[in-house]
């Protein structure tokens, strides 16, 4: 890892410990989108000390110098300390977040924001900090938000369908009721206990972390719309199904005992793995029905419409890949 950059200001020189750390990993992203993400952090009305850590995964290319110049130009007030960490290679978002967590984050609470996502509620952090301060058993809080397409169209992020204010472990396992890291605020002590993101997973490392965190304490859902998750045309095409299939197989193996307590979730994840394995056209083998038949049967019997919808979506995806 090369030298880091810290933007000096009143907070960084006074030695105050931050209440909240915000981590933004970035890789080959236009500076306008990164600027939008950073601006949405700086607009927060939370009045406690904060630190913003930008982790640059653009090792040795033209993006690296651009990001460094951008960080040194950020106009911050005395609530913020800004730091740039530069990775020693292209390591992916999970490793980039872990780099920030490994001895760099000083906040009591940790927030994450992808470089092309942004927050739309100026009180997002204030509301989430207040929720965790009130409930000492809670380790994570999340909210509602939107998907945004390249043309600006917005649709509700999938967590809008989840209404429980405190999801159970079963809710977490079966529904992934949290989703993107861009919306969460996490108690740092819980992150320290769980060890951060699992970098052995090709995708779904956020979901796997939520599974571990939910075993450390409770989650709180806030009803407000606080974030926008960007979706870009053409992303998640090459190898996406295979990566999802590999990830679900690994997660089932890692958390076999936990899923054993929630057969519906076990069956659902096994079916998802088989769905993406079939879409990978032989790149990944489906998990054996023999090893998962009971929870799969329980899920199908309880959620026949969900199962039929899953098979319908699988058929549409396969048909689209044949056409293109």
SSE layout and pairing:
Layout: E1 5-7, H1 10-14, E2 20-26, H2 31-42, E3 50-56, H3 62-72, E4 80-86, H4 93-101, E5 109-112, E6 118-119, H5 124-134, E7 138-148, E8 154-156, H6 169-175, E9 185-187, H7 188-194, H8 205-214, E10 218-230, H9 240-254, H10 256-260, H11 263-279, H12 289-302, H13 304-323
Helix pairs in contact: 6-11, 9-11, 11-12, 11-13, 12-13
Domain Glycosyltransferase 2-like: 21-192
Pfam family, one: Glycos_transf_2
Protein name: Glycosyltransferase
Description of the structure:
One of its GO terms (molecular function) is transferase activity. It comes from Bifidobacterium choloepi. This is Glycosyltransferase. Residues 21-192 form the Glycosyltransferase 2-like domain. Keywords: Transferase. With 324 residues, the chain is an alpha/beta fold. It folds into two domains: 5-230, Spore Coat Polysaccharide Biosynthesis Protein SpsA, Chain A, CATH 3.90.550.10; 240-323, no CATH class. It has 13 helices and ten strands. The protein has helices spanning 10-14, 31-42, 62-72, 93-101, 124-134, 169-175, 188-194, 205-214, 240-254, 256-260, 263-279, 289-302, 304-323, and strands at 5-7, 20-26, 50-56, 80-86, 109-112, 118-119, 138-148, 154-156, 185-187, 218-230. Strands 1, 2, 3, 4, 5, 6, 7, 8, 9 and 10 form a ten-stranded mixed sheet that branches. Strand 3, helix 3 and strand 4 (80-86) form a beta-alpha-beta unit. Helix 9 (240-254) packs antiparallel against helix 11 (263-279).
């Amino acid at each position: 890892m090369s030298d880091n950059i810290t933007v000096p200001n009143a907070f960084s020189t006074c030695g105050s410990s931050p209440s909240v750390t915000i981590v933004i990993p970035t890789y080959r992203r236009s500076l306008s989108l990164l600027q939008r993400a950073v601006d949405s952090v700086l607009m927060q009305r939370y009045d406690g000390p904060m630190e913003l850590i930008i982790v640059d995964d653009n090792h040795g290319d033209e993006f690296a110098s651009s990001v460094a110049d951008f960080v040194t130009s950020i106009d911050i007030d005395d609530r913020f300390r800004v730091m740039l960490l530069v990775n020693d290679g292209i390591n992916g978002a999970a490793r980039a977040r872990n780099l920030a967590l490994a001895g760099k984050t000083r906040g009591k609470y940790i927030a994450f924001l992808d470089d092309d996502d942004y927050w739309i509620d100026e009180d997002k952090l204030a509301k989430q900090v207040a929720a965790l301060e009130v409930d000492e058993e809670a380790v994570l809080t999340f909210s509602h938000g939107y998907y945004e397409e390249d043309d600006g169209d917005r649709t509700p992020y999938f967590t809008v369908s989840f209404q429980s204010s405190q999801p159970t472990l079963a809710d977490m396992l079966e529904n992934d009721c949290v989703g993107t890291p861009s919306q969460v605020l996490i108690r740092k002590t819980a992150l320290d206990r769980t060890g951060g993101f699992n970098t052995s997973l090709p995708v779904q490392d956020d979901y796997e972390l939520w599974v571990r965190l939910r075993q450390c304490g409770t989650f709180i859902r806030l009803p407000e719309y606080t974030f926008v998750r960007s979706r870009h045309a053409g992303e998640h095409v090459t190898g996406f199904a295979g990566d999802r299939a590999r990830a679900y197989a690994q997660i089932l193996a890692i958390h076999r005992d936990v899923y054993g307590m929630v057969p519906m979730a076990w069956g659902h994840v096994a079916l998802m793995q088989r769905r993406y394995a079939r879409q990978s056209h032989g790149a990944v083998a489906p998990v054996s029905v023999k090893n998962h038949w009971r929870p799969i049967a329980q899920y199908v019997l309880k959620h026949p419409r969900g199962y039929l919808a899953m098979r319908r979506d699988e058929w549409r995806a396969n048909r689209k890949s044949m056409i293109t």
